[in-house]
Structure formats: C-alpha cells, structure tokens
Amino acid sequence: MRILEVAGICVVALLAFFFAIFFRRRLLMTGGGTIRLQVHINTIVPGRGWSPGLGQFVGDELRFHRMFSLAIRPKRVLDRRTLTVEERRLPAGPERLTMPGHWVVLRCRTADSVIEIAMADTTVTGFLSWLEAGPPRDPGSLRGRPVFGPRPIEG
Q: Which Pfam families does this chain map to (predicted)?
C-alpha cells in the first residue's frame, strides 16, 4: 500500500509540473510580441547545446524564456541598442536534427559577447524589422556593410 501512495504522489507531482509549464507558456504568449526561437547556450560539443524557448519583445529588449523552465525571469535579455547581426546561415551538421528545416541561424554580437539564435525564416523578417526600428545608433558601432539586403553593384 505504501508503494502505491508514493507512486500516486509522484504522478500527481509530475502532472502538476507539466501543467505549470503549459500555463507559464500560455501566459507568456498571451501578451503578444512572442516568437519561437532557439538560443545556442552551450558550445562545448559542435552542433549541440541549443535551448528551445520563447522570445518576447518588450520595448527595446528581446527576452528569451526557456521552454522547459519554471523560472519567472528570462534566461537571456538582448538589448536592440547593442545588438548587431553579423551572419546568417542554414543549420549545419547535427543542428539540422534539432531544429526544423525552414529555420535560420543568426550570429549576433552584443556589447560583451557573441550569441547564436535560430528562428523560422519567416520570423527573421520581423526580427530584423524590430532591430532596425530602434533608436539611431552611434555610426561607429556599425561594422562593414549590412548582412541582409541587396549588395552594392561594383564596377
């Protein structure tokens, strides 16, 4: 009888955990300005270490909340005033197994680090619009020509 009680308590606790995760996700998505994305958190093993989650646009910040976490605070906060996109590429190697085929990986630079984020190809357009809609930056902070858009005709 004692084993059944412990098993029942574990099942109820597990169901409560999944309900809490589902409720947290729904709560984040009701505010609007939310996208699905993945952030490259661990770079020890090449192609692995991607963490799925939700990105929430709040003013000048993109707040990354991990999908399977009960934390109230975001795991990462990216400020668009210091964020620049350096490279756009398709998932390669083991990355293709962890994300859908229509996703794109963006290598971004913040004030103090380099971060890779992945999102759907259709979401990239909205992300870049949000990034460019910010306040004017210091002209010295932009490096080289833009990664996206038409390339200048040389000749």
A: DUF2550
Overall pTM surpassing 0.85 (yes/no)? no
Name the token pair of 100: 């859908």
Rounded CA separation 120/103 (Å): 4
Q: Which pLDDT tens digit goes with each residue over 50-97? A: 999 989 888 889 999 888 777 778 889 999 889 999 999 999 888 888
Q: Could you tell me whether strands 34-40 and 114-120 are parallel, antiparallel, or unpaired per DSSP bridges? A: antiparallel
Phi, psi of 108 (to 5 degrees): -115, 155
First to last CA, the chain: 84
d(CA 84, CA 113) in angstroms, rounded, equals 11
Query: Are the C-beta atoms of residues 63 and 77 closer than 8 Å to each other?
Result: yes
Query: What is the distance between the alpha carbons of residues 16 and 18, in angstroms, rounded to a whole number?
Result: 6
Distance CA 149, CA 2 (A): 66
Q: How many whole angstroms separate alpha carbon 83 and alpha carbon 88?
A: 14
Sheet holding 114-120, edge to edge: 76-79, 61-66, 50-58, 34-40, 114-120, 103-109, 84-89
